Automatic annotation (TrEMBL):
It comes from Actinomadura monticuli. This is histidine kinase. Keywords: ATP-binding, Kinase, Membrane, Nucleotide-binding, Phosphoprotein, Transferase, Transmembrane, Transmembrane helix, Two-component regulatory system. InterPro entries: HATPase_C_sf, Sensor_HK_TwoCompSys, Sig_transdc_His_kin_sub3_dim/P. It catalyses: ATP + protein L-histidine = ADP + protein N-phospho-L-histidine. Residues 180-244 form the Signal transduction histidine kinase subgroup 3 dimerisation and phosphoacceptor domain. It comes from the Bacteria. Its EC number is 2.7.13.3. One of its GO terms (molecular function) is kinase activity.
Amino acid sequence: MDLFRRSWREWLGDVGLTAAAGALGTLLLLGTEEDPPPDVTIVVPRDLAIGAVWLVFLLLFRRRCPAAVAVTMMFAQWTATSALGTAAIAVYSLAMLRSWRTVLPIAGANMALIVTLFWITSTWHQFRQGTVVFVLLYAVLITAGMLVRSRRQLIASMDERARAAETEQRLRVEEARLLERERIAREMHDVLAHRISLLAVHAGALEFRPDAPADQREAAGIIRRSAYEAMEDLREVIGVLRDDAPGGDPERPQPTLADVSALVQESRRAGGRITLEENVPDLGRVPARVGRHAYRIVQEGLTNARKHAPGAEVTVSLDAGAELGVEIVNRLPPGPPAAPLPGSGAGLVGLAERVALLGGTLEHGRTGDGRFRLRARLPLETAHARETGGKGEVHGSELL
């Protein structure tokens, strides 16, 4: 049944309030027994038995229908003195679970009935004393209930804001990931368009070479036409990702690892204190695909350093072995960590997409000596094999 379907915390709170109602009712019964109203005989066992029934009623229904319980106890307190405590706790539950618009009319009517009860059954001294006690008691209980309700609403509002902030952060990260994928796709379009155009040029040269056999010229013509068709298809598919209007600026050449030094020089001219440690003996060994992503990693690392540690010394390290290592280290400003800027971390999400595309690893975070380190390891052999197509590569120059 729904009456018994509660968490253990809810049961614990309900039992505690019911026990408080029983204790308050017992105290009121004992006080009334010591100074009973005139011509009133109190049978304690009967009173406690009736009060116990109303305690069970409070325990079962106070959470499901607090207003109905408070109204019922308003009249039930006439049946037993010990039920006065149950009625008071019912008003407290109502203040804790419902708004003041519901609480104040019911509490006012309940207080009016209690005053009427004292007026009918008590002496003037008992009436005055009882009225003061119950007014103060109800004022305290209603205030406490409203405070508990306000605190619960505040906690619920904070939880809702936290969930909204988490959702917004997830959306920002997802948006950054999608934007970075689009950017990578645009770069791939530029690179592939360049290579396919070279393929078409070489195939065209072979097609119109007079001393070439007819079957080779026919095959070269098919390759040339297929290359142009592939370029058109590529433009249609990837072109939807571009913000450029038709007829806008021409496509820019994509950066390579050799352009990192120019990037560092540009940052130095902007006022940055940057040290470049380059241990790449043969730049030609680094595939253009890996070099392009390495350039973007260095670019994002320098941007983060300018944003979060302006004026700090930055060290950029490039190391080529079995894999290409890219590391950007900068010292963090003194003092406690500053609050993250809006959108913080979106660039790192994009770098993670790039590194995952190459099958590498990316690490970033604070070090024990008060610095921030961004380090990526990019495999070279796999990328080189993909770029060359294996050992059977035939350069366009060999066809001519």
